[in-house]
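During the reporting period, our protein records have gained a structure token line. A sample record is set out beneath this paragraph:
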Amino acid sequence: MADIVVPRPASTILLLRDSKAAKVDGKSRDEVEVFMMVRHYEIDFNSGALVFPGGSVDKGDKEIIANPALYSGGAGLDETALSFRIAAIRETFEESGILLARPKGAKELVDAKRASEIEAAHRTALNDGKISFLKVLTDNGMVLALDELVPYAHWITPEGMPKRFDTWFFLAAAPPDQLGAHDGKESTDSIWVSPREALEGGETGRFKLPFPTTRNLIKLGKQNSVQAALADSRGKQIVTVTPVMTKTATGRQLRIPIEAGYDGDVFDVGALG
């Protein structure tokens, strides 16, 4: 039997904003929008897929943990939980330029103008490994806003896959006027899109949606405002999802825990993205 690949810790954020009322089935309905990106086709995991910004936890995230002055909202969290949250904010900044942080001593999130200045000065160097996120924070007097993150989901790639991730999904209200943009390297496009529109795009072939992304979009689409989405998830128990894949006469099937609160527990699927 082949060795089971150990999943790599990773994090992602569903950045949310309210949108104008849309016509759905002939009726006007308020919706949320979420920031999503198209992965570069040469990336070896989820290539070409429409996904939320995120990526792997790295050792630099643990260096930030050692300096509590660099983050707020970490009370009661152990090192593992902190590393997932710090990685989520770092990866989101690297991939979108959106910064969930506050100037030291401030109560409000960094404004869009200052965030843009920090992004212009440091994002490329950070992505190229020429500067650490810790240095970006210290040089610019920033404190990570971990308290803005609401745990939403926890997915682990099925056993038997050649590349596996242990991924925490978080919700966060997008900082005012920070619009975000893809980096042109790991991702080739970026959009603010309602869950409804993203799912419709997945059905028509406009978007390639990985299985976990589809499930979380369906779940998110039940909420009609950012505050409703955050309130619904805040304090909820998160059920870890490790899909179990089996072959059937007509293809493949994935089973997930019904307790996780998605749109079912057994799904017929094609190739996994």
Q: What stands out?
A: The two ends are 24 Å apart (CA to CA). Confidence is low (pLDDT under 50) at residues 42-47. The CA atoms of residues 65 and 79 lie 7 Å apart.
